[in-house]
Design a protein that fits this description.
- By secondary structure, the chain is α+β, with helices and mostly antiparallel strands.
- It has a domain of 51 residues.
- Strands 2-1-3-4 form a 4-stranded mixed sheet.
- β3 and β4 form a beta hairpin.
- It starts with 23 loop residues before the first strand and ends with a helix.
């Protein structure tokens, strides 16, 4: 079976800081394509830069301007 080259993102979490879910977008790392730049301008994704670290954040909340990992959101949901 051939790979399509796309990765499935987990379900969009609610922001662990402000609780909004509809303001959370994925953070995309690496050199952005023109399509990604346009998605960023529309607020559909956040660009994280070309370098990624082991503990790089996965999600960005446009409501409170905080970035976080899915584990942060899961921990907050469990409280």
């Amino acid at each position: 079976m051939a790979s399509t080259g796309t990765r499935r993102r987990p379900k969009r979490p609610a922001c662990p800081f402000c609780g909004y879910e509809d303001q959370v977008v994925p953070i995309i790392y690496g050199m952005p394509s023109p399509e990604l730049i346009e998605q960023s301008r529309r607020g559909e994704v956040a660009l994280g830069g070309c370098c990624i670290s082991v503990d790089a954040h996965e999600w960005y909340c446009k409501g409170c301007l905080q970035s976080f990992n899915a584990a942060d959101a899961e921990a907050q949901a469990g409280n």
